[in-house]
Amino acid sequence: MSVNIGKARDFVHRKGTLFERALFGYLFDGDSPERLQAVILCYKNPDNGFGHGFEHDLKTPDSNPLALEYVLTVMKHARIPPGRILDGAAKWVESQMDADGNLRNPESTRRYPLAPWWRDAGGQTMPDSIVGNLIHFGAATPSLADKTRRWAAARHSLESVGANEWLFMAYHAVDYFFAVDDFPRLDDFRRATIENVIACAEKAPESQYDSLFAFAPEPDSTIAKALPKGLITKFLDHLESAQRDDGGWVDQHNLPQWYAMTTINVLLALRRYGRW
Fold this sequence. Notes:
Oligomer: single chain
Helix content: 40-55%
Strand content: under 5%
């Protein structure tokens, strides 16, 4: 089955948020980055954090770490120029850090709809992906990088990296260890991260196949070149054939609010690997 970009466009415009529609236009229809940046900035608060349900699982309008984490994740994967999006973001993150480096969430998270897996913590408390991606964009302050380095040294070990069993969750190690250049045994942590991605990918169910391309976004990326021969081909073959009659792809948890973004991510992976 070949990809039907027209049906995918219709699906995203019927089911996606304004941001998802703008992202589709930027990636596949030649829309300007300035329009996409303007849409993202609508989710930014005066304190330089992000909220307003930008990440579907946490709907509070108040600034929260999960929203910024998702902003950064999408920006890196889709190669969105930062513009003014990250102005003040590092200082906001540092203002939300406890003494041990964990991140605080606003009390309002529990007054608005949120996914059940966030109820205990109230949202994201881990800074590694956020700060790793701020470093990637050259937007981290030295003090924030130093505090996060100490947090990561206290919480990450080669064993804990290797113990991850869910392909999606490898993003914490990938986003951090492949962004920093100053960490004890960094080469070993990068190697352990790659090995974990491979191990998780080899046993991943088909519903998780799209997650791999957050870590292997194109054929010449570091993790893509480390993957076993034929594994990426198997994943791409499945994704290419998995477009539904309505034009979209289903996320791994079968949550409709994530179908539009899953569709965008699958299309981007298939294009980068020459499948359409």
